[in-house]
Design goal:
single chain; alpha+beta; 7-stranded mixed sheet; 6-stranded mixed sheet; 13 strands
Length: 648
């Protein structure tokens, strides 16, 4: 009985890990494949994504008709098959449909598991923690994108263990199991969205840590970037697996709300605090939602609808939060709203005493007594050892993935510098795959790399810290400046030491996505320095980004203060347009003039010249090229710059 009791918890946790893997492919695939390089309206993207969660509302009637055991086994088999098929790296529409099918199968499996009466909270807490730890152990570069033999072995072993657990649970007969309240299952979706967005995201943790090492609102390469995740996971597990204390029942929702508000409205320097508060509060809310209920057929159906409804909350919040960057409305309130909803669900029934049920033969039957005992046993899983093991795992990952990038000066300053500018579209290629190897290949060998559309942990894009991963692979430290929010912006990587980082927010003038200009100074030694400004202009609807272009030119000129200057990035303007002219009128030189036309977008059929490098007149540009490749929807552009003698 003990074995079966923990088997249900372990199977639920494994299933959530596999489902999370599929979600990390499904969400970005909607944007990069169905979205057709961002040309599809955000409303249509949202409708497509939400449709799969709405379809899952048919799962509870299916479970009631066929039976939770059969449906659970079949759904897990389909979920596992989709997860393994995605490892084969199909890309394109095949990837989108496989991820969609896997998602639907996972939702049906959740409905079957809930209807069967498995205890929700321990499995949910362990599943959230295991998914986060698995993500950090691979440095946020998921196994599903790698396609190596190790990825196949790890993925296959996880799926096999999940399927074996589900089959054993389906064969279980004649043993009482704890039956959770509906509210515990209703929290599945909110817990997944809060965990993936802030509380248990390794990428958010590494980004938060990097802001401790930056200056003037920027972020720089940190030491042991993932270490705080160990604390966050421990806080969640200790709060979720320990019996709730009645006097502290209001503390957990308050902590969760404080963390969500700090995430939505706080400065980047406090992002790590938001993670820790959210993790502790989420774990405590899960514990508050724990408890036993009556094992009736009607309750089984209600649990199925509750878990699917909770996942629908996950979908709606994910779509609404990230669509704001395309449609231009405020979104900081959404995590706070989910935190309030989570707290209210957790507290339901805790704020008022329940009336005592009259004693009957049924109410004191041995099975009921056994269920109560099992409920207490589940609530007293060894929280401290589990949390300690999780913390050690996260700390080990922090050491394992410590990038140790070194910016070194060659003997004396160089005569020439190779500069690459690249809009990496959050790391996703034209086929919708997250391909770090292709990105690395596109920029390797450059002395200075200027990146646009750098994603450092958006749940919508799979929760990767693309900048940390590239910095690690290239061995180059970085400076990052937030644009849309603390997790999305622009960056500079350099083979030489950089300093004096500054960032300036650009006027929005109606553009829905935020923009900034990041200035850094590259120190080549012996007094030879180069000012580099990275930016990504966001044009207002139907207009040229001329106002932002003028703001960038003013900032760059002021920042350089007489130093040789490079201004590079995705300008969303072409030669001859007013914004392009605003930059050249400010005294900057088009470094690609001799190589025009130089189209860079879209990558598979370049027609638009929108990625540029501008330089001060004292820099001589040569060997300008747009390098072919489909690791992003833009082509990387490169140019060799000859430094002026004695520049200082």
């Amino acid at each position: 009985m003990l074995r079966h009791r923990h088997l249900g918890t372990a199977t639920l946790a494994l299933g959530l890990v596999v489902l999370t893997d599929v979600l990390r492919v499904f969400l970005p695939s909607v944007i990069t494949i169905f979205g057709q390089a961002a040309s599809t309206p955000a409303e249509l993207l949202g409708a497509f994504a939400l449709g799969w969660f709405v379809l899952a509302l048919a799962a509870p009637p299916l479970v009631r008709l066929v039976g939770s055991r059969v449906v659970g086994v079949v759904a897990v088999a389909l979920l596992g098959a989709a997860r393994l098929a995605l490892t084969a790296g199909p890309g394109g529409w095949a990837q989108l449909w496989l991820a969609s099918a896997g998602l639907l199968a996972g939702l049906v499996w959740l409905a079957a598991t809930a209807a069967r009466g498995e205890r929700a909270v321990p499995g949910l807490a362990l599943g959230l923690a295991a998914a986060a730890l698995g993500h950090v152990l691979v440095g946020t570069y998921d196994l599903v994108w790698r396609g190596s033999w190790a990825a196949w072995v790890a993925g296959g072993a996880t799926v096999a263990a999940l399927l074996a657990g589900e089959v054993l649970l389906a064969r279980r007969r004649g043993e009482s199991t704890p039956v959770p309240h509906v509210r515990a299952w209703l929290l599945t979706g909110p817990a997944l969205v809060l965990g993936g967005m802030v509380a248990l995201s390794p990428a958010v943790v590494s980004t938060a840590t990097s802001f401790w090492f930056g200056e003037a609102g920027t972020a720089s390469t940190p030491l042991f970037a993932f270490a705080p995740l160990g604390v966050a996971v421990a806080l969640l597990l200790l709060a979720a697996l320990a019996p709730p204390r009645p006097r502290a029942r209001l503390v957990w929702p308050a902590l969760l709300l404080a963390g969500a508000l700090l995430f939505g409205y706080g400065p980047p320097s406090l992002l790590a605090v938001a993670v820790l508060l959210s993790a502790a509060g989420l774990g405590g809310c899960l514990a508050l939602a724990d408890g036993a209920a009556g094992p009736t057929a009607r309750a089984a159906s209600r649990r199925g609808y509750a878990v699917v409804g909770g996942m629908l909350v996950f979908a709606v919040v994910s779509v609404l939060y990230y669509a704001a960057y395309d449609l231009g409305y405020p979104n900081g309130w959404l995590p706070a709203l989910v935190a309030v909803l989570t707290g209210l669900i957790a507290l339901e029934g805790r704020l008022r005493p329940r009336p005592a049920a009259p004693a009957t033969e049924e109410s004191v039957a041995p099975a009921a007594v056994s269920t109560a005992r099992e409920s207490r046993a589940f609530a007293r899983l060894p929280a401290v050892p589990i949390a300690a093991l999780a913390t050690l795992t996260a700390f080990a990952a922090a050491v394992l993935h410590e990038p140790w990038p070194m910016a070194t000066n060659r003997p004396g300053p160089p005569e020439q510098v190779r500069v690459v500018a690249y809009n990496i579209r959050m790391g996703f290629g034209m086929d919708g795959r997250f391909d770090l190897t292709a990105l690395e290949r596109a920029v390797r060998g450059a002395d200075v790399v200027v990146l646009s559309e750098v994603d450092r942990g958006w749940l919508l894009n799979g929760g990767h810290d693309t900048l940390h991963l590239l910095s690690d692979r290239l061995g180059l430290p970085y400076v990052f400046a937030p644009a849309a929010d603390a997790l999305w912006g622009d960056a500079v990587l350099s083979r030489w030491l950089v300093g004096r980082a500054r960032t300036r927010v650009l006027p929005a003038v109606g553009a829905p996505t935020g923009a900034q200009a990041l200035g850094v100074t590259v120190d080549f030694s012996e007094g030879v320095r180069l000012a580099v400004v990275s930016t990504h202009l966001q044009p207002p609807p139907g207009a040229d980004p001329v106002v932002q272009a003028r703001a960038v030119a003013d900032f760059a000129t002021e920042y350089a203060d007489g130093l040789p200057l490079v201004v590079a990035g995705d300008f969303n303007t072409e030669p001859g347009d007013p914004a392009f002219a605003a930059l050249t009128d400010a005294g900057l030189v088009d470094a690609f003039a001799a190589a025009r036309p130089l189209p860079t977008s879209p990558a598979d059929d370049p027609r638009e010249q929108i990625d540029h490098v501008f330089v001060s007149p004292d820099l001589v540009a040569s060997e300008a090229v747009a390098m072919p490749g489909t690791a992003s929807d833009h082509l990387p552009v490169a140019v060799t710059l000859t430094l002026p003698g004695g520049a200082s």
